[in-house]
Amino acid sequence: MTDATTPRFRLGFLTHVQGRGDDLARTYRNAQDLFVVADELGFDVGWVAQHHVPLGGGGLSSPWTFLAHAAARTTRIRLGTAITVLPLEDPVRLAEDVATVDTLSGGRVELGVGSGASPAEYAAFGRDVTRKRELTTESLDLLRRALAGEEVRTPDFRVQPAPGDFTDRIWQGVFSAEGAAHAASGGSNLLLNRAAYGYDAPTDEVQRPWADAYLDAWDRPRRPRIGLSRFVFPAKDRRTALAHIRDDVHQAALRMAGNGAFPAGLDADDALRRFHAFHGHPDEIVAAFGKERVLPVATDLITQFNPAVPDHDAAVRALELIATEVAPALGWKPAPRPVPTGA
Questions:
Q1: Residue 255: closest CA among 270, 266, 245
Q2: Is the pLDDT score of 342 beyond 60?
Q3: Domain residues of the chain, as ranges?
Q4: Would you tell me how many other CB atoms lie within 10 Å of the CB of residue 127?
Q5: Are 240 and 201 spatial neighbours (Cβ–Cβ below 8 Å)?
Q6: What residues are paired with 230 via a beta bridge?
Q7: Which residues contact 205 (CB under 8 A, 6 or more apart)?
Q8: Strands (E), the chain
Q9: Mean of pLDDT over the chain
Q10: Is the CATH number of domain 10-262+275-329 3.20.20.30?
Q11: H or E segment at 248?
């Protein structure tokens, strides 16, 4: 139940940990700094995406190591993956990493998993990409049992440290109504991508039936949760925003046309539309979100800049504008900061 003082949704940001050039140490430091900034601004959740095959300018192969460091540098923001590529992980070993970061962070972990899509990644880990859905289902079942503190694989073996309650903290990324219903049947929260690949219709038109299928299939006593990822880049005006994102988004769309995700020959404006990009002055973004079909049923709005790679100062400024102008106009309120002990 909500009232006028209850936020409509939790606010998150997602980074794919990309930079420019080969200085990955700087790229990683900048991404860590974004977590600190987001923590100070009141963002509810910070998410990272896992990529084993390098992206242009980086990519993060080891998200739980990264999040352990972020846990030490922040005080309240929740820490999640969107997603961990589950079939390429040993689920028991993953549960140990998740439980460790959750313990170090004071119970702030959100675990998003999915099947991934890269044949090269599957080949590198000796897994059959044609079995990715089956492998995801099998691994998720074992991961759930490990995080529930059950014996796994052999008598008397349980994950340590003892995991907290992950009943409502496991998320699945899906790309169809059938996948959404399957996630609901297992009790997972739903993660929806920033763009619907392989479709001509606008992303929110494609994804709203997926969200509805998820809600229709939900049969648990707790509230279903839907995380909506969207490309959001506010600036002082549309021209400034485009200067930071236009070329990167266009080049990403052209690359993705190579694997059939987008049509060939897109121009920059088409690319921005295909990525369902919200960009420009905060007022323009708020107005555009007023027409977004999935946001009304979302419990989490997850903002991201990818596939654009804005310079660090511009990324920080964009986070500030999201937290102070865009999200509040959409009904979000930052959670109160905890009062220091002894204050």
A1: 266
A2: no
A3: 10-262+275-329
A4: 16
A5: no
A6: 303
A7: 293
A8: 10-15, 45-48, 78-85, 109-114, 170-173, 189-192, 226-234, 278-280, 300-304
A9: 95
A10: yes
A11: helix 238-257
Token pair, residue 315, equals 């990324």
Distance, CA of 14 to CA of 322 (rounded, Å): 13
Which of 37, 35, 40 lies closest to 80, judged by CA? 35
**How is residue 230 written in tokens?**
């969207």
- Amino acid code (one letter) for 63: P
- Measure the CA–CA gap between 5 and 332, rounded to whole angstroms: 10
With a CB cutoff of 8 Å and minimum separation 6, the contacts of 114 are 83, 84, 85, 86, 136, 172, 173, 174, 191
Segment (H or E) for 228: strand 226-234
**Range with lowest mean pLDDT among 54-68, 96-110, 297-311:** 54-68
* The predicted structure's pLDDT at residue 22: 82
Amino acid letter for position 254: L
Tell me the C-alpha distance between 252 and 306, whole Å: 9
Q: How far apart are CA 83 and CA 81, in angstroms?
A: 5
Q: List the structure tokens of 305.
A: 């800049």
Structure tokens at 146: 């490990």
Query: 3-state DSSP call for residue 303?
Result: strand
The helices-and-strands tally (H runs, E runs) of the chain is: 12, 9
Token match 């994950």: residue?
A: 159
Q: What is the pTM of this model?
A: 0.95
Residue 252's Cα: distance from chain center in Å?
Answer: 18
The 10s digit of each residue's pLDDT in 288-325 is: 999 999 999 999 999 999 999 999 999 999 999 999 99
- Residue whose C-alpha is closest to residue 269's, from 255, 286, 250: 250
Q: How high is the pLDDT of residue 338?
A: 64
Q: What Cα–Cα distance (Å) separates residue 106 from each residue in 11, 76, 224? A: 20, 9, 24
SS3 content of the chain, % helix, strand, coil (to 5): 45, 15, 40
